[in-house]
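thread: overnight batch results

M.L. [08:02]
morning all. the overnight job finished for the chain we discussed friday. pasting input first so we're all looking at the same thing
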Amino acid sequence: MIRWLEHPEYVEFLIGYIPGHSEAEIRQAFMDKYGILLTEGQIGNFKYNHKVKSGTKGGCFQKGFEPHNKGKKMPPGIYSKVKNTMFKKGNIPSNHKEVGTERITRDGYVEVKIAEPGTWMTKQRYIYEQYHHTKLDSDEVVIFLDGNKRNFDIDNLYRIKRSALARYCQDGLYTNNKEISLAAARIAELKDVMFKTR
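M.L. [08:03]
and the structure it wrote out:
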């Protein structure tokens, strides 16, 4: 256990170093300087108690945040320690997937990689947009009228707003019959419009 009051040099170092650095960087820098490996809990408590922030959220830098070391070269001592683990220019990770690759989500939907570095889209949405030469809004989804998540026949794909889909599901209107599901989806859309115009 570190007694921060007995080590003002630790406090001064962390207050100066924390802004713009992730917890992993903070732990490593403190280890390099003082030979002590801090836990994530210790760092979190320190930041809370000393009202200092990293400028990161969930381990990621927030949009627009500019680190204090932007444009500066890494110190030679640190560079020599980390250069062997750094990505080389043009390096392709071993788990890289080509555009056009498909994967299955936890919910059983097929996704297609549509762009680099990692842009994925549900296959039914991709097929619908390509076939109809349109771009769906973020509040629109494509459903399978027969309930089969592997039936990508264009006649089985139906575009519906999320609010209408919520009514479709709440009212238990979905079936395995394409024609009935189509009629049910249109009823849900009508109910959604009626609700919004009240």
